[in-house]
Amino acid sequence: MITFAYPHLLYLLLLLPVVAGLFLWSRYSRKRKLRQFGNPEVIEHLMPEVSKYMPWVKLTMSLLIIATLVIIIARPRATGGLEQDTAESETSSGVEVMICLDVSNSMLASSTDDNGGISRLQRAKHILEKLIDKMSNDKVGLIVFAGDAYTQLPITSDYISAKMFLNGITTDMVPTQGTAIGAALEMAMNSFTPTDDMGKAIIVITDGENFEDNAIEIAKRAAGAGIQVDVIGLGTSKGAKIPIGKGQYMLNPMTGEEVVTRLDETTASEIAAAGDGVYVNGASNSAITAVDNKMDELKQAEFERKSFSPQSEQFPVVAIIALILLLIDSFVVTRKISWLKKYRFFTKEEVKK
Prior knowledge:
The protein is globular, with a radius of gyration of 28 Å. The longest helix has 21 residues, at 15-35. The protein is built from 10 helices and 14 strands. Strand 5 and strand 6 (149-156) form a beta hairpin. Helix 1 (15-35) runs antiparallel to helix 3, helix 4 (120-134) runs antiparallel to helix 5 (159-167) and helix 6 runs parallel beside helix 7. A 6-stranded mixed beta sheet has the order 6-5-4-7-8-13, sandwiched between helices. Strands 1-2 form a two-stranded antiparallel sheet. Strands 3-14 form a two-stranded antiparallel ribbon. By secondary structure, the chain is an alpha/beta fold. It has helices at residues 15-35, 40-44, 54-73, 120-134, 159-167, 181-189, 215-224, 265-274, 287-295, 315-331, and strands spanning 2-4, 76-78, 87-94, 96-102, 139-145, 149-156, 200-206, 227-233, 240-241, 243-245, 248-249, 260-261, 279-281, 301-308. 35% of the residues lie in helices and 20% in strands.
């Protein structure tokens, strides 16, 4: 039997009737415009290279390619077979961790005093990858935030997917700029499973410049609900400029001066203290260890999860099919094929008298 790691992504298959509908509308519009120039049967002889059927072949190929790509990102898995079941259930003990990652434009600035240093976002990804590597039986989820907060990965024990989503994060993912740490904390609090006996923690990784809401009050509410809030700060007190490409930096529209963004350790520390967590500077060599040790204090609970062997992954097979379809589609044209012109597949020959 085939299951999917991300079955909710299969809703993207609804794009198929949308694409088909747009194609039908374009064909209808084309016919309507041609009628403005005269009888379509007469005009047809003026367009000898136009094919009636190849656009439909092209559409079919496009729909098949979209379908296979959607199936690939949904990650099909074989949960059973003739010989043995490839998905095994096992009992684990761990905690739940929701990661809230700041993706505001200030995270593009250097994580050091040097404007040419590694960006805060890249440093954040490195820290989070190391933290995920330390998780063995825990569940992890991912939220990105700037002016608004969005769930990127629901709570899961699939660390491979967590790293995959983490590596794909950019500052373009949230259209509204700002730093709404409180909104991210609210969303994280609502993202945990309803299990009461399992320890829960929120890890906020940010430069601490919160302009949108009262994150300290929300952290207090999280602590009251038994959820620990840890904060990892990125950047320096001296600050760094925000690059916008080609050696240029972001300007303040009011003053015309280059924007310098600084790490607000005071606010970050207050949020962590309100959430009964720990604040660490991301530049510290002990940052990962400090957060990991703090999470070890949480109460662990048993839960059942399924583990899949590498042989159970079926998306490579679908990927090969998608590649074949793409190669075929590259040779499919919408005009008449010259060597097929001499054949008549859908007309009857006149009977000679």
